[in-house]
Amino acid sequence: MKKASVISVGNELLDGQTVDTNAAFLGNEMMCLGIPVAGRFTVGDDVDQIVRALHLACEDTDVILVTGGLGPTADDLTRQAVAVFLGVGLHLEEELLDQIKVFFTHRGVRMPDINAVQAYLPEGTEAIPNEVGTAPGILGRRDGKLIAAMPGVPSEMKQMFGRSVVPVLREACVGQAVVVHRLRCFGAGESAIAEMIGSIMERDRNPLVNCTVEYGIVTLHVIAMAGDPDEAGRLAEVDVAFLRNKLGTLIFGTGEQTLAHVVGGQLASMGKTIAVAESCTGGLVAKMLTDVAGSSQYFTCGWIVYSNEAKIHELAVPADWLDTYGAVSEQVAIAMARGARRMARTDYAVGITGIAGPSGGTFEKPVGLVFIGVDSEEGTATERFQFSRDRQFIRQRAAQTALNMVRLRLGL
Amino acid sequence: MKKASVISVGNELLDGQTVDTNAAFLGNEMMCLGIPVAGRFTVGDDVDQIVRALHLACEDTDVILVTGGLGPTADDLTRQAVAVFLGVGLHLEEELLDQIKVFFTHRGVRMPDINAVQAYLPEGTEAIPNEVGTAPGILGRRDGKLIAAMPGVPSEMKQMFGRSVVPVLREACVGQAVVVHRLRCFGAGESAIAEMIGSIMERDRNPLVNCTVEYGIVTLHVIAMAGDPDEAGRLAEVDVAFLRNKLGTLIFGTGEQTLAHVVGGQLASMGKTIAVAESCTGGLVAKMLTDVAGSSQYFTCGWIVYSNEAKIHELAVPADWLDTYGAVSEQVAIAMARGARRMARTDYAVGITGIAGPSGGTFEKPVGLVFIGVDSEEGTATERFQFSRDRQFIRQRAAQTALNMVRLRLGL
After folding, report:
1. Model's pTM, two decimal places?
2. What is residue A345's three-state secondary structure?
3. A367 secondary structure, DSSP code
4. To probe the interface with B, which of A306, A336, A359 has the most B CB atoms within 10 Å?
5. Is the torsion defined by CA of A331, A334, A336, A339 positive or negative?
6. How, if at all, do strands A348-354 and A369-376 pair?
7. Residues in a beta bridge with A234
8. A90 burial class (0-12, 13-18, 19+ CB within 10 angstroms)?
9. Which of B1, B19, B222, B353 to mutate to test the interface with A (most CBs of A within 10 A)?
10. Are B223 and B178 in contact (CB under 8 A)?
11. In chain B, whose CA is at the least distance from the CA of A28?
12. Which portions of chain B are predicted below pLDDT 70?
């Protein structure tokens, strides 16, 4: 199997001014192409350092991806370094210069002289088109190894990688097809899910089942390789079916879907609407729902009722319930959900009340205690949760959990 | 000046399952200690790869920080690699074993046998205590170079680095004092700020003025080095005064403060309160305000009035204004702010209406158009903004801008 190296160029990566998200993106993409990244070098804006990394990368990998150092200023040195590494000179590509000029003309400005340097390429290499910025990439070859240098700006790099580098890599891996499915899970942790699915996550298996976690969402990547796409597809399907069977409703979506996407999509297709009443999550559930483009179709109104007065005044939570049960209680979560549904005249509503901390906890109602109520025509349900860790985590997890309760109520 | 290398160990870093935030953290911390990171190697869970990186790192740097690979499982190989690199064997440290056992006892469980491996150290090295996990770090020396291996879990790494590694590094840099000030700016971009402050950001200057950007917040790090802390402090103060003079109210805070911290702190100290009425930001301003612990002191209530009906019904926005001026208008932003302040009976209120996109824009009211109104005893002010890029960016920037308007209204 072919292997890749990534060389990330930029002083800002070494100083910690920038987190190298490009490297993680390329790591996952290359894994999905069947050319896993075997090593990564991060170097400063320095020709010698870049050349040294290119030599080291060529020692044991077949594809070398470089990001950064292609800008127009004096500290952008990847162009020179690739030329030194290949033992060639730089020469001006008139056609490239015209393209860069056109890029500026379209924005109504003259090309600054400084940008002309981006039209120079190491001899014997090709330009990789950049449709969203001025810096073209560089595609070179040495000793049967492929070198692709791309800009460091993530949006430019991603676009260039997907459109122009992936096809070249696929060609280099002819006879090897890779099919990737992603299953998105919520409601159990990484290790619990790993236990449920057993040895399918072993490292040298095909399909490879990889797992990433972000904000409580566990994503399982099923990466199948075979001689042709049909066979790879069949292999992947077997594992996806196995995982769906084992994990059931823990799986809420596929690809890049969020809980808000899934909930929103279902509400839209049913022609139903939702409202939220938030206390401890302070607007986060509404924020998540409205992150989705087109959410105005099903989301009309939300309340952040932080104080008792707001709960009473805005959502008609009975004042004596607040006295009797406390603001953080099953009863108040229900009253908030019912109040929101009635006031906003929606089909569904969620009420969330809890203690996000760090202070405000008691022995009976500790920090992290959250009640979530869901109200709809079918009735009202409420659940009690005890989250741990810090304020941000508790709020994040409570908001995700609320969306998950709605998802399950919608029969998803 | 001494220089450092960072070696990040873990297959999950190469696969893109994990973004290497440790490396950025250490990059910034080492810069602030006056031992900048000159290169970084990311390697898989493989003894040969780790040893190779240790050799490469030792070639040209004085301090080598390793993260990851100290766990108890078969793929955690940093311990062995450090031993191979130093040319020594591993031996069991009874005292360490007892500490690990105590760690588990305190959690009411017996130590799994597998964890005993964490009590082994390369001969001639010291254990670095881990107060939040089971994996002790390893502190070794070779040819006058310092090697510190730490766990990959960010919380454990950060704690171990700050408490145990920093003092050793300071000792290694005796006679060199570093003082760091951070100024947080909002309201102008990185390049505009760079232009305003001129040559102070040059790379080889002392103090070094570094710049990081996140969600529109530009942070200037003033890093002063001198023979003693007083002198370093004086150097830093000069630059801080210069920057404050140049940037004026663009600077909203210091250290790690957010706009919500600064606004909240001022409201709390004045005994004043705030409410929000959000349309296009969908709860994000409320979320930011309530991210701050203790925000219930000044934040009582918020509305997400996504639909016209909600704007009319909840906040008494005049229906004919919606018809005449449209939901995205100066007039409606003002009416929302006024409605929120009256309904919530707060001292301040913000109203935000705009088009977050990607659809819904017109020639006259394009995607990214946002009106923000601030209402208080002093009167009502409204501003029109045209943000660009995508939905997430527009929402984020609109929310930050709303908080910034409140900050300026509060005289900060």
Report:
1. 0.81
2. coil
3. T
4. A306
5. negative
6. antiparallel
7. none
8. middle
9. B19
10. yes
11. B16
12. 174, 203
Mutant choice from B42, B311, B403 vs A, greatest count of A C-beta within 10 A: B42
Cβ B286–A285 below 8 Å, yes or no?
no
Question: With an 8 Å Cβ cutoff, is B245 touching chain A?
Answer: no
Instruction: Give the orientation angle of helix A190-197 with respect to helix A229-247, to 10 degrees.
Output: 110
> Cβ A14–B40 below 8 Å, yes or no?
yes
Domain A4-172 and domain A259-409, same fold? Reply is no
pLDDT for res B369: 96
From chain B, pick out residues whose CB is under 8 angstroms from the CB of A357: 293
B40 CB within 8 Å of a chain A CB: yes
Strands A145-150 and A177-185: unpaired
Place of tokens 């109504």: A108
Q: Using CA coordinates, name the residue in chain B closest to A23.
A: B16
**Looking at this protein, which amino acid is placed at residue B360?**
G
Tell me the pLDDT of chain A (412 aa) as tens digits: 789 999 999 988 998 878 898 999 999 889 888 898 999 999 999 999 999 999 999 999 999 999 999 988 777 899 999 999 999 999 999 999 998 888 888 777 788 887 888 899 999 999 999 887 788 999 999 999 999 999 998 888 999 999 999 999 988 776 778 888 999 999 988 777 888 888 888 767 899 887 777 788 988 989 898 888 899 999 999 999 999 999 999 999 999 899 999 999 999 999 999 999 999 999 999 999 999 999 999 999 999 999 999 999 999 999 999 999 999 999 999 999 999 999 999 999 999 999 999 998 999 999 999 999 999 999 999 999 998 878 998 999 999 999 999 999 998 8
Give yes or no for a contact between A190 and A211, defined as CB atoms under 8 angstroms apart. yes
**Is B44's CB within 8 Å of A38's CB?**
yes
Chain A segment 310-369 residues within 8 A of B by beta carbon are 310, 313-314, 343-344, 356-359
CATH class of B177-254: alpha beta
The answer to whether B15 contacts A26, with C-beta atoms less than 8 Å apart, is no
Scan residues 168-187 of B and list those with Cβ closer than 8 Å to A.
none
Domain at A259-409: CATH code: 3.90.950.20
Class of domain A4-172 (CATH, top level) = alpha beta
B147 interfaces chain A, CB cutoff of 8 Å: no
Enter the tokens of residue A298: 């099903």
User: What is the sign, positive or negative, of the torsion defined by CA atoms of B51, B53, B59, B63?
Assistant: negative
For residue A381, the one-letter residue type is A
Listed by start position, the domains of chain A span 4-172, 177-254, 259-409
The reported pLDDT for the residue numbered A55 is 96
Closest CA to B400 of B289, B242, B308, B310: B289
pLDDT of residue A229: 85
- At residue B195, the pLDDT reads 81
By CA distance, what is B395's nearest residue in A?
A291
Of B282, B295, B309, the CB nearest to A286: B282
Cβ–Cβ gap B28/A49 under 8 Å? no
Best CA proximity match to B68, nearest among B58, B57, B79, B59: B79
Whether A294 contacts chain B with CB within 8 A: yes
* pLDDT score for B199: 84
